[in-house]
Specification:
Elements: H1 2-28, E1 36-48, H2 54-58, E2 81-94, E3 101-112, E4 120-130, E5 135-153, E6 165-184, E7 187-200, E8 209-223, E9 226-239, E10 253-265, E11 270-283, E12 296-309, E13 314-327, E14 333-345
Length: 346
């Protein structure tokens, strides 16, 4: 029931957001303000050595959804695959310098060549407002429906043999906001917060989780050719399983997330990008015989990519990403991804 209500609320929010995006400039822009529109199309082709871990690895970044749903070890190692990612982003902005308003809708898809059950899509809506030339505020909504995690063991106390394993899927909603302040000509500080919901299919609804995040980002233009970004998040997640001791499946947690990103302009048209991410999940269950009691998970990810600007509006990119994750009571898991693609701005 809670999942149905969440989806209903989400549909209302999406409809309102699209309407606001389309009508906003006419409704709230000053008469002298002219709305500007742009469309960005992206297309990427990936090779991954583990289809089950691909999605969580790709979102391990400060502006994505780094604290992905728990993936039990036996759900991983589903084999290599080729993944196609199309994405489209529509942006409109209006106002005068120092008071610009920007609205963005972004849709993204992931299509697996051999493991079609992992196919999924996401939708994001974002609105930002300049308060002055140095200060900006923004809010964002993210919707990721029915992400397939694998065929998992049902934990209910009484279960028939034919229903011992079922498809585990999760739908994610989160709302985030931030204040961006230029504290120096080359340094920007961002205070960040979010609140979110993860809602699982009925057989696994003890894993339904409410979570909140606070954090800060720092962006530094060190010189004309080097940019550095740092970030830290603290997150707390509370799962329904903490109130169901018989199931012994409480995935409640606290999370520390640290990230660093470096961009180096090698040539006028060519840039090299690095990113390093680390997170520690500490499981907080107090249920006796829950395998996560007193345990934790470490995740480390690094990626490197080259971006070649063909024109002012088109670019090609190629990259490599490696990630390692390990729960303290299980063997570690590895995921490697390689990609090539491009983007164009209209």
């Amino acid at each position: 029931m809670r999942t149905t209500q969440s989806l209903f609320i989400c549909k209302i929010f999406m409809t309102f957001s699209f309407g606001l995006l389309l009508a906003g400039p006419q409704l709230i822009a000053p008469p002298s303000s002219v709305a500007e529109w742009s469309v960005k199309a992206e297309s990427y082709l990936f090779y991954t050595d583990d289809a089950a871990l691909f999605s969580s690895t790709r979102r391990l970044a400060r502006n994505q959804d780094p604290t992905q749903p728990i993936i039990d070890r036996h759900l991983a190692e589903q084999g290599e695959d080729v993944v196609y990612e199309p994405a489209a982003q529509v942006t409109t902005s209006f106002g005068s310098p120092g008071s610009q308003t920007e609205m963005t809708v972004r849709g993204q898809g992931f299509l697996f060549a051999d493991n079609g059950r992992f196919n999924h899509g996401t939708l994001g809506v974002q609105i930002s407002q300049e308060l002055n030339t140095k200060t900006k505020v923004g809010v964002r909504y993210f919707y990721g429906p029915d992400l397939f995690l694998g065929k998992n063991e049902v934990r209910t106390p009484v279960v028939s043999p034919e229903e011992e394993f079922k498809d585990e899927k999760v739908t994610t909603h989160f709302w985030s906001g931030g204040i961006q302040q230029k504290v120096h000509e080359d340094i920007t500080l961002i205070l960040y917060g979010r609140y979110g919901l993860r809602r699982y299919t009925h057989a696994f609804d003890q894993r339904n989780t409410d979570f909140w995040t606070i954090g800060t980002h720092l962006e530094w233009e060190a010189c004309d050719h080097i940019e550095l970004a740092l970030g830290y998040h603290y997150e707390r997640g509370l799962a329904d399983g903490r109130n169901q001791p018989l199931l012994k499946d409480d995935i409640s947690y606290f999370n520390h997330f640290i990230t660093a990103e470096l961009t180096i302009e090698l040539l006028k048209e060519l840039s090299l990008e690095f990113a390093l991410d680390y997170e520690r999940n500490g499981f907080t269950t107090g249920i006796v015989d829950d395998e996560r009691k007193g345990e934790h998970e470490d995740v480390v990810s690094g990626d490197i990519s080259l971006v070649y600007e063909l024109t002012d509006t088109a670019a090609l990119t190629a990259g490599f990403q490696g990630a390692h994750r390990k729960e303290s009571f299980e063997e570690g898991l590895r995921n490697l991804n390689v990609w090539f693609g491009g983007r164009i701005l209209f």
